[in-house]
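Quick one, T. Sequence first:
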Amino acid sequence: MTHTPIASIGRRTALGLGATLLGAPAVWGQDRYPNRPIRMLVPWAAGGTTDIQMRALADQASRRLGQPIVVENRAGAGGILGPQQLLNERPDGYVISQMPISVLRHPQMAPRALFNPLEDFSYVIHLTGYLFGIVVNAESPWQNLTQFLDYAKANPGRVNYGTPGVGTSLHITMEQIAGQRGIEWTHVPFRGWAENSQALLGNQIQASADSSGWSELVQSGRMRLLVTWTAERAKRFPNVPTLKESGIDIVSASPYGLAGPKGMNPDHVKVLHDAFREALFDPAHIAILDRFDMAPFHLGPDDYAAFIRRQYAEEGEMIRRLGLRL
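Structure tokens:
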């Protein structure tokens, strides 16, 4: 019988254990995803509706993921700077961006497309849509949308309106309204609601078309809400008519979600989706949606990608019909 020295057994056992540890990092969490902070690009200015909502969502999702989600604002260019940045990022699941609907419009309006929304991103989850509306300074003479549009038509070129940027739903819908009513007015793009609201309160523009960041200023009496763009009247503003009720057959909510760079690991996409789905319906986040009269609109990765394809085609038809160009 051959006897192995006790010292050798101990040494080989230690080496074997070390090899086992090194060879199975997933068991010990070294390959767990995510294992470091995630960057979330928000292509709008800090303090606006989207920024507030996305920060609340990120806070809830980080609790599920066990890692911080760091919000980076990339305001300007109508909301495409965040998605555009994804083209320069690794598809490792550590950078995602809010995807506004302008991502589907910009390539179809620009002389040279910066990206292809059908091929250049990994779609993670669809989240919600906005409450949009037109507000004016409370000191202005216009008490309703009809008065405002009548003034704009009678005074070509004298009305300036602000939006968050060229090619946004707000810009396009305002031009649709102008086309239907024979109005000539001037679009003034801003980087976010903070700039837009300051210009309106300072009477540098006559109206703002934006998401419901204006709600508190309307409720405090500093701004007047003339119309909302939803299918039904907003819960907090039941006395304000919709565009359809005002004789303009348009409903606009500009739905959006989250995506990462092209080529993300499907397992990482699933991890992110599941965490953000729970965050979307968390009571703390729902409270923020309610604050801005927004509603959850959940789609998983495959359904969201299919939605993008349909929406891209519809937006292209509208852009060509209106002859919109950047």
